[in-house]
Amino acid sequence: MEHRPVLVALRGLGMGGLLTAVPALRGLRRAYPGHRILLAAPAALSGLLPLMDAVDALLDVSGPGPVPYDRPDIAVNLHGGGPRSTLALLRTRPGRLLTHAHPGVPHAGGPPWDPEPDEVTRWCALLGWYGVPADPADLSLPVPPATAAGHVIVHPGAASPARRWPPERFAQVVAALGRAGHRVLLTGGPAERALALRVAALARASGSPVAEVAAGRTDVAALAELVGAARLVVCGDTGVAHLATALGTPSVVLFGPASPARGGRPRRDRHIALWAGRTGDPHGLVPDPGLLEIGVPEVLEAVLTLLAADAGRAGDGDGARPETRDGPGARREEADGPVTVTLCEDGPLLVRGPFTIVTQDGRTVDQGRAAVALCRCGRSAIKPFCDGSHKTTGFRAPGAPGEGT
Hints:
Blueprint lengths: L5 E5 L4 H6 L1 H10 L4 E6 L7 H4 L4 E4 L13 E4 L6 H7 L5 E3 L20 H11 L22 E4 L11 H13 L4 E3 L6 H13 L6 E2 L6 H10 L2 E5 L2 H9 L3 E4 L16 E4 L14 H4 L3 H19 L13 H8 L4 E4 L5 E4 L4 E2 L5 E2 L5 E4 L14 H4 L13
């Protein structure tokens, strides 16, 4: 029997919610190395624990409680602003509680709830208020070994209908990828298998090669293997998008009711967020109007941009997981071959080859790969790289290729 003091951290949400709390959980691990850290979260997420390297075991909790533990040394509310989650942790009779203040629980204390930060920053800031440092950039998970690689994942589901792009449109994306020779995997949970089968059938009806339906047949550990080995993930604003960010897999993410800024801090040169700039009810019962403004051509343009960049990193484009610029293969690629610049219509410049980006004051910008998409609209939040802002702003290039643009 272990006699270490126990720290219980409550995060009773889904996969995306858990992954945005990884930096905070790692901060707790560093701050309390002698404690046994228990994560109160849904049991279905237990397969991610070995990749997180932050907690010792999981208590099966969905939502804000109750939390099945008595008298932990420390309880940490990483679930919400209260009062239900705060009261659930107080009922465990902790020696110390780390939580946000709430007028419904005046004796709990803590910093005031701030609705503005993204989820990653919010929980790191909470811990910082209590003197526990946590790095919001500490999101990455190690890529698990996989038996196959080089596929493209299309994940058509989401927790609420408001965040689900129509299956007919996903089918058009799947069909285009299949006709281009890509192996497509359709993923999802058990409740999303029927949706994935429908998307596959619609794509097949248009003459596309058959897409493989993995939805309902993978737990989170197997899903992490598939995402980590993929060339690209195409999905809505859901947990798989956060998994792609954590594993470093390029992604095209379709946002509807919520802004992309709410979720966290991906490496945006490898992730394109498509958003019409409109917000709405994330729990709505029909697809959000802003999400419906995103068309199939926009998604395919983003997909082709990232796949082309992936092929540039992989060197021979054979579908293997691309190497970073720190690897020997990438250095060979940079040493050989020409630089090519492709103009995406009313979109970014796609640059491939042995190039270096230098600022006006002579500093070198780490592009992180041998092919990048560079902003032309001037609105990107991560200049010089493209973050998809040209779509939300309606950017139109001032001229055609060959006319000096």
